[in-house]
């Protein structure tokens, strides 16, 4: 209800922001207006084309049911005076950001399509001057007035998510986050960019922080495409986030909705990932264990084994140990 009320209040702003953004898109002035001068990756250009043509059927006009259902475990200390920062990667115009901001959280989105950022900030409140810029990145903010007259704001990093790091986050005046809601983000990334995406996301989360991840499982589309959204199964989630404890939450059958798009099955799967406070120690122990296994196996001939982000190869003894991610 809170999300619907916010949308009703903000609808005139959404229309105005959309019109202005479309005009800007036609003139190609987004990045210049925001001072972003870094060359834009082709993957962002493809998403810009989708936004410009209105192909955004993945967006919901209400709070996502998974976030609503599991908010208390994503933010278990929500009632405390210090509210955690919540990150929304590849956020688009998600209603979830505004709803959590109105609940008192510091909300940070990341979005590479300026049109989406314009719409999101315009819908929430009045956009403020850009405070921080880096090559390819700009921190944009919008604020509205709360019930008690207080300022409530949301912050959105406009730029390529894969260009982020803990260092650039600090340079933008932000800190590592305590929580992440990833719905439609990991599954939107192409398989070849998936490991890089997870490496960046992992780096932006504080030790002990949580990621509420919504993945999907489905067969190929009728034209042979695998996505987006791309399937990411549980075993791969565990491999992509080796420094996190992964807890399966639920698996929901949404096949009926997607059969009209030619899929035989479609499942939405939710996980809670908690970053280990001793992630460096865990990684070190894993490397040591793998080297020991490799040394024993090398006596029997050539080996090649991979667990998580660690690959060990050796013919017939260990000749290379590579730690990836």
Automatic annotation (TrEMBL):
Claim: Cytoplasm is one of the keywords in the record: no
Coiled coil among keywords: no
Keyword tags: Methyltransferase, S-adenosyl-L-methionine, Transferase
Xref: InterPro entries: SAM-dependent_MTases_sf, TPMT
Gene3D superfamilies: Vaccinia Virus protein VP39
Database matches in PROSITE patterns: SAM_MT_TPMT
Protein name: Thiopurine S-methyltransferase
Organism: Coccolithus braarudii
């Amino acid at each position: 209800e809170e999300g619907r009320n916010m949308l009703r209040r903000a609808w005139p702003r959404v229309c105005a922001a959309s019109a202005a953004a479309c005009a800007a898109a036609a003139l190609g002035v987004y990045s210049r207006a925001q001072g972003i001068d870094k060359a834009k990756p082709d993957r962002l250009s493809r998403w810009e084309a989708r936004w410009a043509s209105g192909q955004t059927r993945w967006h919901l006009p209400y709070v996502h049911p998974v976030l609503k259902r599991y908010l208390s475990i994503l933010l278990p200390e929500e009632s405390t005076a210090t509210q955690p920062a919540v990150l929304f990667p590849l956020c688009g115009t998600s209603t979830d950001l505004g709803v959590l901001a109105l609940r008192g959280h510091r909300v940070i989105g990341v979005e590479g399509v300026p049109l989406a950022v314009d719409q999101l900030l315009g819908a929430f409140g009045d956009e403020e001057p850009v405070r921080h810029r880096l090559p390819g990145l700009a921190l944009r903010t919008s604020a509205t007035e709360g019930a008690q007259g207080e300022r409530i704001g949301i912050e959105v990093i406009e730029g390529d998510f894969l260009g982020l790091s803990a260092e650039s986050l600090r340079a933008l005046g932000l800190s590592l986050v305590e929580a992440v809601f990833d719905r439609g983000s990991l599954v939107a990334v192409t398989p070849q960019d998936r490991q890089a995406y997870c490496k960046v996301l992992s780096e932006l989360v504080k030790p002990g922080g949580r990621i509420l991840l919504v993945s999907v499982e489905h067969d190929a589309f009728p034209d042979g495409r695998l996505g987006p959204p791309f399937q990411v199964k549980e075993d791969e989630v565990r491999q992509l986030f080796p420094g996190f404890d992964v807890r399966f939450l639920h698996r929901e059958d949404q096949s009926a909705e997607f059969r009209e798009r030619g899929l035989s099955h479609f499942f939405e799967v939710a996980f809670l990932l908690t970053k280990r406070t001793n992630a460096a120690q865990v990684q070190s122990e894993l490397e040591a264990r793998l080297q020991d296994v490799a040394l024993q196996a090398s006596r029997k001939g050539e080996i090649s084994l991979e667990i998580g982000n660690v690959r060990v190869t050796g013919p017939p003894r260990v000749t290379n140990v590579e730690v990836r991610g």
